[in-house]
């Protein structure tokens, strides 16, 4: 599944770019709790993306070998989201809960943008 690894590398670059913008926003603006919530949510979103890619690799290997597959790891991704909510609720003076939730959704937004961008790029090359 080299295509999956290439997609993950592209998406990881997008996520790190967004994280660097959020860190700059945290450092240079007065909206520190908003940007820190985005940093927390996006960091854990990147972790969830990595978990999902790792599970999909294992899933592909198991299917090609004819083995049975247990799960794609939804519980671990939900647990990560619950951890983020617990951190944001424990320290509301540092983290904005709303922007933390937006940050958790960042990987899905990046996946959608990456899909449309490279689909349009493939169509344009033909």
UniProtKB/TrEMBL annotation:
Q: How does it sit in the membrane?
A: Multi-pass membrane protein
- Alphabetical list of InterPro entries matching this protein: ATP_synth_I, ATP_synth_I_Bacilli
Residues crossing the lipid bilayer are 12-28, 34-53, 74-91, 97-118
Query: Subcellular localization, per the record?
Result: Cell membrane
Q: Where does the record place a coiled coil?
A: none
UniProt xrefs under Pfam families = ATP-synt_I
Q: Which domain of life is it from?
A: Bacteria
Keywords for this entry?
Answer: Cell membrane, Membrane, Transmembrane, Transmembrane helix
Give the range the annotation lists for the signal sequence: none
Q: What is its main location?
A: membrane
What is the protein name stated in its UniProt record? ATP synthase subunit
């Amino acid at each position: 599944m080299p295509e999956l690894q290439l997609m993950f590398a592209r998406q990881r670059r997008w996520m790190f770019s967004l994280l660097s913008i959020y860190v700059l926003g945290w450092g240079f603006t007065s909206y520190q709790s908003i940007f820190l919530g985005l940093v927390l949510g996006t960091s854990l979103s990147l972790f969830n993306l990595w978990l999902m890619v790792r599970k999909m690799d294992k899933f592909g290997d198991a299917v090609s070998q004819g083995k049975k597959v247990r799960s794609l790891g939804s519980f671990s991704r939900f647990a990560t989201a619950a951890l983020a909510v617990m951190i944001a609720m424990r320290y509301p003076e540092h983290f904005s809960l709303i922007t933390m939730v937006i940050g958790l959704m960042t990987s899905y937004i990046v996946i959608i943008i990456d899909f449309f961008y490279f689909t349009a790029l493939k169509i344009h090359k033909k």
